[in-house]
Amino acid sequence: MPRAERRRAPAHWSRHWIMKLLALLLGLLLAALLGAWGYLRASLPQLEGTHHSPLLSAPVTVARDANGVPLISGANRLDLAYATGFVHGQERFFQMDLLRRSAAGELAELFGPRALPVDRAHRLHRFRARAAVALARMAPDERTFIERYAAGVNDGLGALDARPFEYALNGATPRPWVPADSLLVVWAMYFDLQGNQAPRELARGWLAEHLDPAQRAFLLPDGSSWDAPLDAPALALAAAPIPASAPAWWGRKEAVPPRQLAGIGFTDAVGSNNYALAGTRTASGAAIVSDDMHLGLQLPNTWYRLALRFPDAQGRPQRLVGVSLPGAPPLVIVGSNGHVAWAFTNSYADTLDLVRLEEDGTHAGQVRTPAGWETPVAHQETILVKGQPAERLLVRETSLGPVLSTAGTLYAVHWVAHAPEALNLTHLQLERAVTLDEALAAGAADGIPAQNIVIGDARGNIGWTVAGALPRRVQGGSAVSFPLADGGTSTWDGLLEAAEHPRVTNPAGGQLATANSRQLSGPGAEVLGDGGYDLGARTRQLRDHLAQIGAKATVPAVFDAALDDRALYIAGWRERALAALDDAAVAGHPQRAAFRQLLRTGWDGRAGVDSVSYRLAQQFRWSLHDLLFAGANAEMHRLDPKASMQAATSRWPDVVARLLDERPAAWLPAGYDNWQALALAAVDRSIAEVTRDGTPLEKATWGRRNTAAIVHPFTLAMPFLARWLGAPADQLPGDANMPRVAGPKFGQSERLTVSPGREEEGLFDMPGGQSGHPLSPFFLKGHGDWVAGKAMPLLPGAARYTLTLSK
Predict the structure, then answer these.
(1) pLDDT band at 33 (very low <50, low <70, confident <90, very high)
(2) 10 Å Cβ neighbour count for 622?
(3) What one-character DSSP code corresponds to residue 496?
């Protein structure tokens, strides 16, 4: 070989081996991708074919339509409980696992130390131990019902060709489902729906200690002119006079954060609309019932749609249609059975007390409750932590509940969720109810977190009561919504009987509407107490909208009431901002001038995605909140991260509105020449906030602020997966304080409208699809319709896939 060729040979061979190595790496990468793809495909649920189980008395068919919504048909309700468990286990097991672990304080076993704060807070309540007690208390047929569901869940999980993809990402192995887990899922909803009551009491306790009686009456009113109770046109409450002086913390400038904090999670404290029209108001003569439950939005969606078909006890065909909660007992949570339809909203009844405890050196190991000294029972809890040694947590339990320590003060957490009677399966009686009275009785006795239940029947009757566990109180109302001390107001003692729950039936106007605000103006309000009612603006707007529908209402017209995004409440704040922006205020301030012009010309009266005017008016309100309450919030956050003025009272905007309108000199915060100067400071703060990311003021639309961030929980740890495990970043119309509640991660988790006996006319939508698997054709099915407010039929359509479960 010539010398020149010998010199070129090493380079030639080098390139040759580099190409081979690259080809090998590319092949390995391709093989890994194909393996991952194959694994994901293997973890998809079984849609067709046959699965056998000796637990079934007869074959059950699961006929899914093009949207993945199943019609599950079988010989009895017990077989359908198994089949529901099977489809839940295949489609939603990881979601179910998170719910049971959240309630039990067991998330760190999956996610490591970052989940320990939640686990410590939830383990305080020892709900896994309580689940065993509650299960033992149930009637044998109820236990069998839950056991059959658990068996279906485990068989569905086991029938997958690979474990759900989340466990492959996490490196964990799914733990089998046990009957007690289904009770834990119900307790997870207690946390979701009532978990803010303890921070609320801490916030109100701090305020009580830093306000005189007149200031407290003014800043923490029991109601407002916006409230729309079911038993009266409005609340007959006289507004407290503005006190002669403001509290010391009022308007502390040094406590105001550099950017807006208060409105970041502005919808987190509100949840759900439900309403009904009587037959006297409908075209068909049957009642129309509608529901949209507002919850945190993520993938998969909270609810799983289904229809159940089976013969009743007399052999007559029965059909249930609505939504189930994967992991909970396999019930139709909201829906219709052909005779009655029912819908829920969170009641915000006062179901939790913080009772101050004392310790001293003469009573070692004891605490003093209002009843005297006692020795708490100590429980050593073990929290498993992924990648680290287990953590030990000592929980002390008094006769009133577990001991909570915060900022050096001890409290007993006296919560109805701890009562053994707080959970039951009376919801099965609601599924079987034929008349309004039967449904109201079953609903009131239901073992769930206290909910407003609105019911309508095929005869046209409508009614409301509070479903779920309610405490029996000697004194109610706002008097017990503060931490209780020895010698103070008594805490509750036992639960009310179902027959004692307040009730409203067939009101004269032929309609009922609840939306988390105060439900009653009369004595029933004392029974329920105030566990954090929402401002009544949303309820009032919904009530008035329904009244305008007229006497021949149809299901589509009633469904559309949930999509009402008119900004009736924010209109007043727009006017206040404009009042401050006179010619002198905008002179030499081009941004203020632009702010005024946008408020004047861009207002269409809605929280639309293209509206700049709406965003500026809403931002003005929240900026005033920060300027006036930041000092108090900074102090309350030391007690609990969720403790704030917003937690203490939803009626703070009424207080601020009165001050801006009446302009009392004693309440003008230091550093401002007059109330207009304060309002202009709020305008300037609003401008800075909405343009902080470089967006020009005229482009700062509500849609840019209200952009959906609906993703799978795994994207929190692995953001790069959001492309495959998230919904599109849709700009959403709607906001708090109007029926169409919408926030980036909170909003209408489903919309359902139905006339019992006329389910074929029923309408439905929800933000996520049926499946939690990203390769499933049902993963995001229907999401676009939900964004657009376009309803789909409530009943499943023609069968596209049929799975048979048999012995």
Answers:
(1) low
(2) 22
(3) -
- In percent, the amount of the chain with pLDDT more than 90 equals 85
- What are the tokens at 119? 């686990």
Look-up of token digits 């329920």 = 528
SS in 3 state form for 758-779?
CHHHCEEECCCCCCCCCCCCCC
Give the pTM. Answer: 0.94
Q: What separation in angstroms does the CA of 193 have from each of 240, 416, 516, 531?
A: 30, 13, 11, 11
Pseudo-torsion of CA 557, 561, 562, 563, nearest 10°?
90
3-state secondary structure of 327: coil
Which pLDDT score, from 0 to 100, does residue 268 have?
47
Closest to 336 in 3D by CA, of 796, 798, 794: 794
Greater model confidence, 165 or 2:
165
Residue-wise over 137-173: b if at least 16 C-beta within 10 A, else e?
Answer: ebeeebeebbbbbbbbbbbbbebbeebbbbbeebebe
Neighbours of 713 (CB within 10 A): 15
Amino acid at 717: A
- Residue 458 and residue 287 in contact, taking contact as beta carbons nearer than 8 Å: yes
Instruction: Please return the burial class of 29, using the count of CB atoms within 10 Å of its CB with bins 0-12, 13-18 and 19+.
Output: exposed
Phi-psi region of 377 (alpha: psi -120 to 50; beta: other; left: phi over 0): beta
The mean pLDDT value for 65-93 works out to 98
Question: CA-CA distance, 450 to 535, in Å (whole number)?
Answer: 19
Amino acid at 349: A
Which token pair is 265? 């999670």
Q: Tokens representing 242? A: 């503005």
Give 164's contacts (C-beta < 8 A, 6+ positions apart).
Answer: 43, 93, 94, 157, 174, 772, 773
3-state SS of the chain: helix, strand, coil percent to 5?
A: 40, 20, 40
In total, the chain counts a number of residues equal to: 807
Q: How confident is the model at residue 267 (pLDDT cuts 50, 70, 90)?
A: very low
| Burial track 316-338 (b if 16+ CB lie within 10 A, e otherwise) | eebebbbbbbbbbbbbbbbbbbb
- Angstrom CA distances, 305 to 91, 418, 562, 778, stand at 12, 30, 19, 12
Residue with tokens 């905007």: 653
pLDDT for 271 beyond 80: no
Residue 233: which residues within 8 A CB-CB, separation 6 or more?
Answer: none
CB atoms within 10 A of CB 263: 18
**Closest by CA position to 59, among listed 50, 68, 67:** 50
Distances (CA, A) of 412 to 227, 235, 345, 376, 729: 32, 33, 28, 10, 43
CB contact at 8 A, 231 and 504? yes
Residue showing tokens 């789909």: 792
- Which residues share a beta bridge with 392? 382
Take residue 741 and report the two structure tokens written for it.
């509640």
What letter does residue 739 receive in the DSSP assignment?
A: S
pLDDT (tens digit, 9 = 90+) per residue, 100-152?
999 999 999 999 999 999 999 999 999 999 999 999 999 999 999 999 999 99
Structure tokens at 34: 């194909």
DSSP string, 607-653: --TT-HHHHHHHHHHHHHHHHHHHHHHHHHHTT-TT-SHHHH-TTHH
pLDDT digits (tens, 9 = 90+) for 470-497: 999 876 666 678 888 765 567 899 999 9
Instruction: Retrieve residue 606's tokens.
Output: 């809605």
Query: pLDDT-based confidence at 40, cuts 50/70/90?
Result: confident
Q: What three-state secondary structure class fits 512?
A: strand
Q: Say if CB 301 and CB 395 are below 8 A apart.
A: no
In 3D, which of 798, 740, 668, 630 has the Cα closest to residue 257? 630
Could you tell me if residue 747 is left (phi over 0), alpha (psi between -120 and 50 degrees) or otherwise beta? left
Give, to the nearest 10 degrees, the angle between helix 571-580 and helix 652-662: 30
Three-state DSSP state, 53: coil
